[in-house]
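Please, structure for the following, as C-alpha cells.
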Amino acid sequence: MNFSGWQARFRRLQDEHATWKLLRADNAPIILAFIADLFAEENEVPFARARIALDTELERGRELGYWSSESGAGTYLNQWIRTGWLREMDDMLSKTDASETALRFCRTLDEPAAGTSASHLRIVQDAVRDFAVAVNPDLDERAAQLEQQKREIQRSIDELHAGVSVELSEAEQRERIREIYQLASVLTGDFRRVEDDIRRIDKDLRIQIIEGDSTRGNVLLELMEKEILLANTDAGSAFEGFFQLLCDQNRSAEFSDQLRGILSLPVAHHLNPAQRQFLARLMRELSRESERVFRIRRRTEEGLRGYIESGAAQENRAVTRLLSELERSAIALRENGCDLKTRTRLELQVGVPGIRSPESLNLRQPDENLDTSGVEEQANRREPSMEMLDSLEAVQIRRVAERTLDALRRHGPMTISALSRHQPLQAGLEELVACMRVARAVHATDLNTTELVEVHDKQGSRIRASIPGLLMSADLFPANIDELTL
C-alpha cells in the first residue's frame, strides 16, 4: 500500500472508528477518567448509579471552572452510548471494545513496558516451535521434534533431582510477570469483540430480512451460518477456548492454583496493587464476561425470533417497497416536466382521533365485589402460632452456599442438576430456589440451556422442576463467603 492508500485508510478510521473518536474528543481526559473510575471494581454498573456519579463529577467540574456546559449527566451518557463508547442493556452499563482499547492505549503511555525484547523473543520462539510441530506434514519429523522437547524436559527434571536449580534473575522475573499481566489484560477485549460481532450479525440479518424475500427457514439457516463464522473469528475462538477451560475441572483448577501461587511469591511485588488484584480475580471476571456473552447471544436470538414471528419484518418490507414506489413516481413526475408544487384536491385521512361524546369511550367494567363472607377476624398476638412457624422458610441460604462450595471443591465445576445428585435436595422448592440464588450471587455461567432437577418436599413428595443451566465452580466464590449477596 502506497502513501495515498495509507492516508485514505487512516482518514477513514479517523472519521469512523469509535476509539479514534474517543481519543480525539474535546473532553477525552474527562470521559476516559470517568469510565476508568466507574468500572474500576465492576464490569457492569446500573445506569442510575452512573448518572448520579457523572452528575457529581460535572457539578465539581463547574465549581472548579473546567466544565461550563449545563447539560445533565443522562444526556452525556446517552450520547456516549450512541457513539459506541458505552453499551446499555437491561438498564446496566458496560464498556465497549472501543473504550477498552482507548483505556489500554492510555495506560501503556504511562506505565512501564510489560516486557523487554528478550521476554517477547522467548514467547515468539515458543509459539514458532509449537506451530512448526503442529503443521509439519512429516510425521517422523514431528515425532523427532517432540522427542527433542521430551529430552529437554527430562534433562531439567534430572538437574532438579540432582539439586541443580537455575533461578531467574530479578530482571527476568519482573519481565515475565508483567508479560503475564499484559497478556491477561487483553482477554476482556476479546469478549467485547464477541459482543460486537453478535450485534453486527443481528443487524445484518434484520437488514437482509427487510431487503429480501427470505423465508423463515432461510433466515434460520443464515443465522446458523453466521454463528459458525462467529465461532471461527479470533474473538470467538478465544471465547470458546476459555469456555472449554472453565468446563475442564483439571485445567481450571490448575490455572487458578498457579495464579494464586504466583501472587503469593515476592515476585508479585513487581506489579502494582491494581494489577495484582486483576490477576487474583481473573477467573471470576472471565466467568462473568462469558455469562454476559451467553446472555447477549440469547437475547439476540430471542429478539430475532420475535422479530420474525411478529410480522414486523413483513411490515418493514412493505413500507420499504411503498417508499421505493413513491420515489419512482416522484422521479417520473420530475422527468415529465410536471410542476411539483401544483395544488391537488387530494386529502389524507390522518391525525389524532377525537372523542365526540362519553358514549364513544370504552369504559372498563367494574371489578366484581370481593366476597369476604368467610373471613373471620382474628385478634393480634405477640407469640407466633405453629401454623405461621411451619410456613416460614426453613432453608438457610448461607448453609446452602457452604455445602455448594464444599461439593464444588471435591467434585469440580458442575450445574445445579449435577449438584443435586451429590447432595439431594430434601427441603422442596425452597432449597432449589436457594441453590439458584447462590448460583446467581457468584455469577455462575449461564449455559443457555435448561435442565431437569428432582426435589423432595417436607411431605416426601417428589417434584420435577425445569431450571436454567448454571455452571458453578469453586473459583467463583470469594475467600470469605459472607461477601456474597444472598
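Confidence is low (pLDDT under 50) at residues 357-368. Residues 168 and 174 are 10 Å apart (CA to CA).
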